[in-house]
Design a protein that fits this description.
- By secondary structure, the protein is of the alpha+beta class.
- It folds into two domains: 6-207, Bira Bifunctional Protein, Domain 2 (BirA Bifunctional Protein, domain 2); 212-259, SH3 type barrels, CATH 2.30.30.100.
- Helices cover 26% and strands 33% of the residues.
- The protein has a seven-stranded mixed beta sheet, sandwiched between helices. A five-stranded antiparallel beta sheet has the order 11-10-9-8-12, with no helix packed on it.
- The longest helix has 20 residues, at 177-196.
- The relative contact order is 0.15.
Length: 261
């Protein structure tokens, strides 16, 4: 198990302003919970919260995130983007793209993304992203993006129904978590700077989504929809061509099954 610490993280980071404040906890309920508390207290943009173990790690739809101690990257970043609320999904996009690129640059593994927030390796889930926010009127006050990534997890310890994998399992060797964190934070910051300058991450995100072009079943608050995932729009909504020919826009949902191209 490679050890993490606040001093080691601070020393390793090569970002300009992300990670200027680092909070490291060996054990924590969830990095998002702590990051939200810090954001409410006025923590600066780029504050980074890292843990080795979460006792109440969460995924989307309230799912539990299982992460054996010392085997995963568990971190959250505080953003203060000054964007309109409907553009919050752009932060999910840049974080997914940054992590995907970091995995590829360090391991050459062809990571992909699954709509709306999963990180995939060879068709199996290697990580996830949880975005939470607070707004004032039409503008975002802060956004906290939490990332959980299976780095050196023994996947036999995870329930089979998770369809999970880890970077080490796919690569055939252990991967230093600190190096991966360093690169992910640097690349997320780089993409965030581009976003602040007016560059949209949508085209890159759409190109990285393994979901597009697949027949999928999507569980939504309005029911279960089935059809062809044809694209995504500016707000990150999935464009689903239903079997009856109608086009449905799905902003919130969970893909429960899909068929290969």
């Amino acid at each position: 198990m490679d050890e993490l610490s606040a001093s080691a993280i601070c020393k390793a980071l090569r970002s300009d302003f992300f990670g200027q404040q680092v909070v490291y906890c060996p054990t924590i309920d969830s990095t998002n919970s702590v990051a939200k508390m810090l954001a409410l207290q006025g923590a600066a943009e780029g504050t980074l919260v890292v843990a080795d173990k979460q006792t109440a790690g969460r995924g989307r739809l309230g799912r539990r995130w299982l992460a054996p101690r010392g085997t995963c990257l568990l971190f959250s970043l505080v953003f203060r983007p000054g964007l309109k609320v409907e553009r919050a999904q752009a932060l999910n996009m840049i974080c997914g793209l940054g992590v995907r690129q970091a995995i590829h640059e360090l391991t050459a593994l062809p990571a992909q993304l699954k709509w709306p927030n999963d990180i995939m390796l060879h068709g199996r889930k290697a990580g996830g992203i949880l975005t939470e926010m607070s707004s004032r009127g039409e503008l975002l006050e802060y956004v906290v993006v939490g990332i959980g990534l299976n780095v050196n997890v023994d996947i036999t310890a995870l329930p089979a129904e998770f369809n999970a994998t880890s970077i080490a399992h796919e690569l055939g060797r252990m991967v230093p978590r600190l190096s991966l964190l360093q690169e992910a934070v640097r690349l997320i910051e780089q993409r965030y700077s581009a976003l602040r300058a007016g560059e949209s991450p949508l085209a890159d995100w759409a190109a990285a989504l393994e979901t597009l072009g697949q027949r999928v079943q999507v569980h939504t608050g309005q029911g279960l929809w089935q059809g062809l995932a044809t694209g995504v729009d500016d707000e990150g909504a999935l464009l689903l061509r239903l079997d009856d020919g109608h086009l449905r826009r799905v902003l919130l949902g969970d893909i429960v099954a899909y068929e290969e191209k």
